[in-house]
Amino acid sequence: MPLSRAQLEALTLTDIREPIAADLMAKAVAGPPFVQGAPRILNLRDLGGAPGSCVRPGLVYRSATLAGETPKDTAESTDWLSKNVRTVYDLRREKERQASPDPVAAGVDNFWREPSSAYGAPRPDLFTIGDGTVGWKYQYMVIAAGYRETFRNVLEHIRDRPGEPILIHCSAGRDRTGVLSGLLQALAGTAAEDVKLDYMLSRVGIETQRKRLLTVIMAGVGTLFKGPDDPGLYNLSSLRPQFWTAFLEDFEDKYGGWEGYAMSEEGLGFSAEDLAQIRRNLRGECERSRL
Fold this sequence. Notes:
By secondary structure, the protein is an alpha/beta fold. Helix content is 48%, strand content 6%. It has a five-stranded mixed sheet, covered by helices on one side.
């Protein structure tokens, strides 16, 4: 039996250095938003299946990298993509794509463009401040600025190709994918607390590759910290609700919220008519949150 909303929320707060108990993990992924009967694509979820989501189920999927660990995994992934997705939007940078190319799936387009110069890798120095909130709110603002063109392309797809399912992903399906997912959830009318829970569910979604993720982070920026127990590295690896809350405060100040971001010239530059059509195409019947 799947976990309740309260149980899911508690599970998302699990320290990144600690494993999630196998029995709880099995229950957590036994129901939406985690995709059932899917191949081993890390952190694969249906935006429309998240608790409280107003996104139409089966329209937008989110995940980590799509390449499997084995040829069999990759074959299963491409089969699932061909049956469920029409366009993949890859949010990774070129070097990430070269290291782990997306598999080619029949009938599925793959969209990618390099983020603008406004985007940069996380600044390790900011993650040594407090609990990491300063670092993550800065980084999420950088993502919103640097990925404007790709985010615009995703919304154009939703506006112009109603009902055509897409998948959005980065390397872990957590931060870049999380900001874009937050935009889509908010435009669909999902309540702020439900958007935050969707963001936090990546703590559960990455669990099977948690140790590998920590290793990758250590290899990438670990030399800038004192060691694996350095608070800065711990903050950079973690996922906490206050990161999202702080980001939204700065985001509101700069853009006037998600709608302001979607319509302003500093943001995505859509008209009111565009935005109304995007909302109509995105929105389903809001899911009832699990009790």
